[in-house]
Each structure stands twice: as C-alpha cells, then as structure tokens.
C-alpha cells in the first residue's frame, strides 16, 4: 500500500493470539416488532408466538477460528455455538411466561472469552401460567374428587342401609312369626310377645339407651316366652289355679327357652333375656334366684314390660286390671320384684297413658 513514507506491506493473515472478536446483537424482533434498545428489560406480550434475535461476530481476521455462543437463560440449560461465518437470526417460538435473559458471547481459538452481551426479557404470564390459577384449579379438582367420592360413599352407604333394613325386616318378621306361634298356644295371649317387645323398646328409649341396644332388646323380648313351646297346652290354658306340679312345669319355660335359643349367637344376651325374665330384684324369682344387677338389664326391662301386659289384658284366670290398680301394684313391688329405677320410668309412662298410644306395627321396623 502507498503511504506518506513510502510503500508499507500488511499481512492480513496474521491474528494476534490474544485477540478475541466482539459478539453483537443487532436487533430483537417479537412477532415482527423490532427492539434495538436493550438497556431496559424487554416486555413480551402474553400472546406473542415468535422471538427472533439477529446475532453477529465482529471479526477482521480471515483465518481465525473464533466462534459465537448464545444461551436463552430460562429456556436452555446448555449454550449453543455458531461458526465465525454465521450472520443471521436465531428464533424461539411459543415461550412460556416468565423471565428470560439472552446471553451472547465470543470465544477465540485458544478459549479466551470476549465480550458478553446480556439482554433481559419478561413474557407476560398466560391465564393458566399464574400459580394462583393452578392453586384454585387444584382446589376445585380436589373438591370435585371429594364430592364424587362422598356421593359414591353415600350411594353405597344408602344401598347398605337399605339392605340392612331389609335384613332387619326379615329378621323381625321371622321372629314375630315365631312369637305369634308361641302366643297362639293361649287364646288370651294373642299378640302378647309383640306388645312386650314394643313396651320394652319404649322403656329403653325413655331410659336413654341407644338404638343398637333397644333394637337388640326388641328381638330378645319377642322370644322371651319361646320356652312355652315345651309346656303342655292344658297347663297354659287352665282357667283355674295351677297345682304345685303344674306351676313347677310352668317355671321350666325359661330354661327350655334358653336351650332352644342357645345356638343363636348373633343377637347378644338373647338367652339371658329368655332365661332371666322371671328373676326378681330381691332374689326370689326363678330359675337361678339372681338378685339386683346380677340380672341382665335386658331381662329386667322385659320382666316389667311382661308384667304390665299381663295385668292390662284379659287372661284365662282373670280380667284385665284398671290403670289405677296396675299403678298401685307396681308401686308395691318396686325394689322387690323389679328394678326400682326401671319401675319408676314405667310408672311414669303408664300415668301418661303412653303404652296405649304406641303404634305396634311401626315398632316392628324399629323406627
């Protein structure tokens, strides 16, 4: 080349080993809208679909092996490399909402890093990219799952309850049929066992006992006289006083009933209620002369309900007693024949004429 001091010679193949070319970002385009001022964070609309960046490697050497690196922090975990001769655009499509940094840098042949360009950007969050939206959706989904589960449980529970009610009805009807068969031995005791069962349930309810107790009590009371199956009809229906031998025979029906029911184990205290309903609070009853709370609670309730029904209905040997006479009799034997606490409750129910208002048929289902 001609110069003021003569001819100078330049070697364009020479590149200093320490020279690192410059990396550059000319412009950024978002769906065709260009941005050239990178001093502030670039805002990307939530509905933007394409981000394009024009990168360059500013090198004056012809033979150096400098390269360009870039990485979109927030999207790429590893940097991408471009050759020295690359001049063009890089594009990113359908970015999720959030913060990004476009980092661009150069590197020469010996690994020295040149300038680093960083451009910060933020894409607005879409509706479903907000954490609060997902929290609400998760909550609603959980509510939906819980509601569906509860609906299924309620449906299954309802079906189970209906099935259990069906079983209870079958059991009640079967035991009622047995009780009616027993009562049929005596023309004066028709319906006796069902009434005793109903009275027993009402006494237990007044005592504050729970449903399981009085439902079980109902079944026990229905069968309290099952042992009379083994007693001759002429003794049961005798219109006059019984002889000692006949009375001894009658006294065997609790033991007979206990033996008949001993094989049924699904109804708690079934045999106790049958075997003990003629025991007395003072220990002068039969068959085991139990006293006080040695007698099962079920048997104590059944005993007083049994006696009330006997006094309030005609028998072969006498007519029914008026309410005043029944009340007087219970007051007389309270603490002797019967549990005084249960007797007091029974007296209260009789004074209110409560037993006469019972719908016997509704008791069968233990409503």
Mind explaining what this structure looks like?
This protein is of the alpha+beta class and 367 residues long. 41% of the residues lie in helices and 18% in strands. The chain is built from eleven helices and eleven strands. It has helices at residues 131-183, 192-206, 211-222, 233-236, 244-250, 253-261, 270-276, 297-312, 323-333, 340-351, 360-364; strands at residues 2-3, 6-7, 22-30, 33-35, 42-44, 50-58, 67-73, 80-82, 88-93, 98-107, 113-123. The strands form three sheets. Strands 5-11-10-7-8 form a five-stranded mixed β-sheet, with no helix packed on it. Strands 4-3-6-9 form a four-stranded antiparallel β-sheet, with no helix packed on it. The protein has a two-stranded antiparallel ribbon with strand order 1-2. A hairpin with a 5-residue loop joins β10 and β11. α2 crosses α8 and α7 (270-276) packs across α8 (297-312). The longest helix has 53 residues, at 131-183. The mean pLDDT is 86.
- Tell me the series of helices and strands, N- to C-terminal: EEEEEEEEEEEHHHHHHHHHHH
- Average residue pLDDT: 86
| Major β-sheet profile | 5 strands, mixed
Beta strand count:
11
Q: Which radius of gyration do the C-alpha atoms yield?
A: 50 Å
> What proportion strand?
15-25%
Distance between the ends? 118 Å
């Amino acid at each position: 080349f001609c110069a003021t001091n003569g001819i100078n010679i330049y070697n364009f193949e020479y590149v200093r080993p320490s020279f690192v070319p410059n990396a550059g970002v000319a412009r950024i385009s978002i769906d065709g809208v260009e941005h050239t001022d990178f001093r502030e964070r670039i805002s990307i609309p939530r509905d933007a679909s394409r981000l394009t960046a024009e990168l360059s490697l500013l090198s004056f050497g012809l033979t150096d092996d400098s390269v360009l690196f870039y990485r979109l922090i927030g999207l790429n975990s590893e940097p991408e490399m471009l050759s020295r001769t690359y001049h063009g655009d890089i594009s990113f499509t359908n970015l999720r909402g959030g913060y990004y940094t476009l980092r661009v840098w150069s590197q020469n042949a010996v690994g020295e890093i040149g300038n680093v360009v960083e451009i910060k950007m933020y894409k607005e969050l879409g509706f479903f990219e907000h954490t609060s939206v997902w929290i609400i959706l998760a909550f609603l989904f959980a509510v939906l799952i819980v509601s569906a589960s509860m609906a299924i449980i309620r449906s299954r529970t309802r079906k189970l309850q209906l099935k259990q009610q069906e079983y209870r009805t079958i059991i009640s009807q079967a035991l009622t049929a047995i009780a009616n068969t027993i009562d049929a031995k005596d023309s004066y005791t028709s319906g006796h066992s069902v009434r005793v069962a109903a009275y027993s349930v009402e006494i237990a309810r007044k005592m504050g006992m729970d449903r399981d107790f009085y439902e079980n009590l109902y079944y026990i009371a229905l069968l309290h006289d099952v042992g009379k199956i083994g007693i001759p009809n002429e003794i049961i229906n005798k219109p006059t006083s019984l002889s000692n031998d006949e009375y001894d025979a009658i006294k065997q029906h609790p033991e007979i009933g206990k033996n008949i029911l001993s094989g049924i184990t699904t109804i708690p205290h079934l045999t106790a209620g049958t075997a003990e309903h003629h025991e007395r609070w003072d220990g002068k009853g039969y068959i085991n002369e139990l006293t006080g709370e040695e007698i099962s609670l079920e048997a104590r309730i059944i005993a007083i309900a049994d006696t009330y029904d006997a006094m309030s209905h005609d028998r072969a040997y006498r007519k029914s007693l008026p309410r005043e006479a029944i009340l007087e009799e219970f007051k007389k034997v309270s603490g002797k024949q019967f549990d005084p606490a249960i007797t007091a409750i029974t007296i209260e129910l009789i004074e209110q004429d409560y037993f006469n208002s019972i719908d016997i048929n509704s008791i069968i289902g233990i409503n």
